[in-house]
Amino acid sequence: MRLIAFHAENIQPIKLVEADSLSDVVVLAGPNGVGKSRFLQWLLNQFQNPASNDQNWILVEATSETERAEWGKTQLNTRNAQDADRLRISLQRGGRKRADTKSSLLNFESDRKITNVLPYQFSWDYTDPFLEDVGWNYGFNTLSNRFNDTVHSIFRKVRSRRENISLYVEEQMRARLPGSAPAEQHGAINGILVNPEEFPDPLVPFKDAFARLLSPKQLEEPDPKKSQLFYEHEGQSFPITALSSGEREVVNIVFDFLLRNPSDCIVVFDEPELHLHPELSYRLIQTLRTAGARNQFIFCTHSAEIISASLDNSVIFIAPPKQPSINQAIRVTENDDTHQALRLVGQSIGIVALGKKIVLIEGQHGSLDKQTYGAMLRGSFPDLVLVPSGGKGFIQSFGSLNDLVLKKTIWGVSFFMLCDADAVPPSRDLARLTELSGGRMQVLKRYHLENYFLDAEVIARMFEPFETEASERSWLRDPAAIDERLKTIAREILSYAAALVVSAHFRERAGNVDLMPKGSQGKTTDELIALFEVEAASERLRINEALFADDIAVFTRQTMADLENSLADGTWKNKVPGRPILQIFCSTKHCGLDFGRFKNAFVKAAQGTANSPFAEIEEIFARFSEFDTAAVVQLVQVG
């Protein structure tokens, strides 16, 4: 069976969610607090106890001939009392086997931690555990409650197979005529040939899945005497408990899934990415999807990777509640405007699952900057989610970014942009850009984030516990000496700083080369070449005019003069790139401290100071946190 539509009202905090035409993979996304977990629980309840209800119903479709014959139709809609009864009878049918789960539901909750691991106890019970009956709703139980059953069933299956082989050999031995010569054949026991096809290894799927997930590690043959599973790696044997927490989790999930051998089932999976590296999460999903037959997977996730990789299936974004009659479930596709707009800043649509207020951090060192911002803000704004963004080019496409992302509340998620000063070329009006974004884009007043670490008073305070008056580096306790040392480094890289400014200015002025000719359809190769030659000539002329040598010389002189004046008037800490200054200052020649360690120590030393060097940054984040989208007229709710 397959879920193809749902309609749910007033399952707090959700007011209304509905969707139809669902595919074999359904991804539910959305920020925290919108009710995704409550919706999953509602969905489980709909299958565990189907009942007729006009406000809350599901539509399922048969995926096997058995279901169609049993239902007498192809689809069941639980709004209809008879259909609800048919679905309940089908789901609650008895005689279900442990290793043959058909037309049912498997639940993998978000809390998959196994805390009560019971070792396998040897017994004389040799019955095949795969053929034992289990309750109709066994798959609705949590994974933690199924885990011991999974492991013990694997051991019991091994014992059962060995017992069956032994019984077969004994029967053949008793049937042999007295005095007959033993057969000398490969695979024979006491001269009796054992056909592997009659006694297939039941653990082959488990071994293959283990290798696919964790190669080069290999699952060993289970030995009931050891009471737990072992794996081999680089010639050594290790218990399963030696795996990392993420590796253990995927093994637990996949082994449970393989044991149940589901077909025509709905598999509900809450946060498959939890505790997992993105690559391991990807392998897990691929392994599950290739096992069984005609299964449908419903993933509830915050993973941008899973969301982005599923856009050719059914991705449903659950937005915060609007008016009671407005559907909160928004279908996300590869080609919608929002997805295309987010690509401008190097993001996918999956980013909307991270939080309700997302701050895009522009810059080449966005990931490192995120750590730095986090350290200096110390969790002061928990409602803000910082996401490293694509880099320098966004200002060139600011109009599209501003109209499609910054000025809109996308499905209840607000976006903000924080840039270093070097992101904005001198020719751009910074105040105007900020105004056009409605305050959603803010630019630091200093060249780099590292420029805020050039406070000599804080650096001196930072080195107080380490340096003494007699030390060769006692100057590190003197703010004036530190400031002079930093200024000297700035003077040394002044030409480099000027080169950055000049190159950025003329890069924007020249723009990108565009050779795309008009009217290129229906042309021969030679005709197309001729069109390109015309465009190339036009572009060369435009670039030559933009890069006129005298203009470059004039602008370079102005830039160098401005930077030299900044050394005299004390504004150089805003204008000269702070990252290279700090990197040089941290070298052995100066303070001899690792760059990352320096920044961490600086942040600690800055705490509690009367004049925080990060006051401007804290003020920007405070504005983002207090931002009221409802108060800004031009902000539009999408979807």
Automatic annotation (TrEMBL):
Give the InterPro entries listed for this entry. Answer: AAA+_ATPase, ATPase_AAA_core, Bact_Antivir_Def_Nuclease, P-loop_NTPase
Question: Which SMART domains does the UniProt record give?
Answer: AAA
State the source organism's domain of life.
Bacteria
SUPFAM superfamilies, A to Z: P-loop containing nucleoside triphosphate hydrolases
Name all AAA+ ATPase domain ranges. 22-322
A molecular function annotated in GO for this UniProt entry is:
ATP hydrolysis activity
Q: Does the keyword ATP-binding apply?
A: yes
Q: Note the Pfam families from the entry.
A: AAA_21 (PF13304)
The answer to keyword Cytoplasm applying to this record is no
Keyword set for this entry? ATP-binding, Nucleotide-binding
Q: Could you tell me what this protein is called?
A: ATP-binding protein
Tell me which species this is from: Bradyrhizobium guangzhouense
